[in-house]
Amino acid sequence: MSGADNHSYTVRKNNTPFVIDRTPGGNDCVLIYNANNSQTAYLPPAASLPPGRMLYFVNASSSTLTILCTDQLDGVPGGSRAPATFATFVSDGANWWTLGTG
After folding, report:
1. What is the mean pLDDT of the chain?
2. Where are the domains of the chain?
3. Average pLDDT estimate for 33-45
4. How far is it, in rounded angstroms, from Cα 29 to Cα 8?
5. pTM over the 0.85 mark
6. 102 vs 99: CA distance, rounded Å
7. Sign of the dihedral through C-alpha 88, 94, 95, 99
8. What is the architecture of the domain spanning 3-101?
9. What digits encode the pLDDT tens for the residues 51-76?
10. Which helix (H) or strand (E) is 88 found in, with range?
11. Backbone angles phi, psi at 48, to 5 degrees
């Protein structure tokens, strides 16, 4: 197993909000959000990760989690998503694409 295979999980629990510039780290793969207040998370620049890199966001709360992107997201510059329960994104090395939401 190489260092690139070492993925981590990031959990934000009740009363532990994302900071305003929360971007998944290089080894983050799944971000689980269960704080009870509306928050925003950011997709990292697509060019900073290898093509095919996937990120999973899970909203395990009753609040809104908005996911923003400075690159294009599904062909829209600076797009955003507010998944009810989850969202899966993949980088093509230049932009982000939504694989699924629910």
Report:
1. 75
2. 3-101
3. 79
4. 6
5. no
6. 11
7. negative
8. Sandwich (2.60)
9. 999 988 888 877 777 888 888 888 88
10. strand 86-91
11. -85, -5
